[in-house]
Amino acid sequence: MDPENKPKGPSPHYSLYQREMFKRGGETGILPSFSVHPEELQESTKKKLNDRGYFYANSNAGLGWTDRANREAFYRWRIVPRTCVDTNTRDLTTTIFGHKIPAPIMFAPIGINKLYTPLGELVPARVAGELGIPYCLSTAASQSIEDVARANDEGASEKNESNSVHEYSGPNGGNAKSPRFFQLYMGHDDEVTLSLLNRAWKSGFDVVMLTTDTWQLGWRPTDINIANYVFYYPGAVGNEVGTSDPVFMEKHKQDIEKDSGKWIDSSVWHGKAHTWEKVNVDTQWKNISGGRPFVVKGIQNALDAKLALQAGCEGIVVTNHAGRQVDGAVGSLDVLPEIVEAVGDNMTILFDSGVRTGSDVFKALALGAHAVMIGRLYVWGMAHEGVHGCRHVLKSLLADLDITMTVAGYRSIREDVHRNRDALRFCASGVPPGPGEHAKL
């Protein structure tokens, strides 16, 4: 807690963010404007957004059992603390796809961010740049690829304590501070796909992440109740990547003027599955980028992880789309160990789905993930206060992870946590409290 007693280490002392909030409250009476307790944060988000915005971010498939399974999986794995370990400095750094990043946390791709704040994807892109952590842009974004890249650059150019120690030379050339990923929904028009990939590469996105589990939108009753599919509404947001694409607009300008859902139906949730053969022969991104990584998102099965490796993918994202696609499915953390066992360090393994706390990040890393993606957390933050809210949630999560490492007795992510099953114990019994029940305990 004492900033005068913190020797410089490989990572910033993210933990001091807690002290900053304590001191501000004690000295000036200024308290945080919203709670970062995940359940309280989700609940308060309901008051900040209309139904369309809230449910688009929070709807799940069916009864929501997969979403609950994600949280139950984290509950069953318990951290085993060590003591009398010198954790005065921590090393939270890691390297993914040639990028050294200050902490093993990434922004997951989430579409139509203008539902949550007027500047949309410009907000998380800027915060990611400020903090030096990777940002992933969705094909269903409500800002253009080029504008998001500029916002990320602007955030990275901010000279402050949070990012001044994170400068490195990125594989795309130049002095990069925050790697950029482009999440691709690949339709069946290769000319449009080629245009998107070229735009992404020219804008400094140097890893492509192909989402494979959402070519058909899952059954989401809470969205059906209010016809919550904003892409079909006149003047809808969510089509900006398409309407800013010259190839798509040359082919479909008249179509999209008559039917605003043309972009989303033909290029995003296009209703026709791709196969591993398509992934295996798809060399467009490799040709454009000079061989930069191609990652498959949506892996829940060890066999699929092996097939991704055989197809030439450098990485996978272990995720069930946060429970939004298949109801009653396994929690992503439940299948992570067997997927890690199947492909090991032959691939970069990213984890997504159900992450809420620093302890959750720790557990996913100990079970073999190289980095963890967060989604709903940052949406809830920016829904409250735009850039400030998003930044507050991310700095809080980083502080939570840093403090967890400190008090649990683990100094280095790479040396002490990653794939360290001895850092965890599995408890098969019990389930976590339901939403809102934590206040009763």
UniProtKB/TrEMBL annotation:
Domain FMN hydroxy acid dehydrogenase: 30-426
Top-level taxon of origin: Eukaryota
Keyword check for Oxidoreductase: yes
Coiled coil: none
Entry binding sites for FMN: P109, I110, G111, S138, Q183, T211, K297, D352, S353, G354, V355, R356, G375, R376
Alphabetized UniProt keyword annotations: Flavoprotein, FMN, Oxidoreductase
Residues that, per the record, bind glyoxylate: Y56, Y185, R220, H321, R324
Region (Disordered): 148-174
Cofactors (names): FMN
One Pfam family here: FMN_dh
Any GO MF annotation of the entry: FMN binding
Listed Basic and acidic residues bias regions: 148-161
Record-linked SUPFAM superfamilies: FMN-linked oxidoreductases
PROSITE patterns, alphabetized: FMN_HYDROXY_ACID_DH_2
Active-site positions on this chain: H321 (proton acceptor)
Homology family: Belongs to the FMN-dependent alpha-hydroxy acid dehydrogenase family.
Record-linked PANTHER family: L-LACTATE DEHYDROGENASE (AFU_ORTHOLOGUE AFUA_4G07050) (PTHR10578:SF75), S -2-HYDROXY-ACID OXIDASE-RELATED (PTHR10578)
Name the UniProt record assigns to this protein: FMN hydroxy acid dehydrogenase domain-containing protein
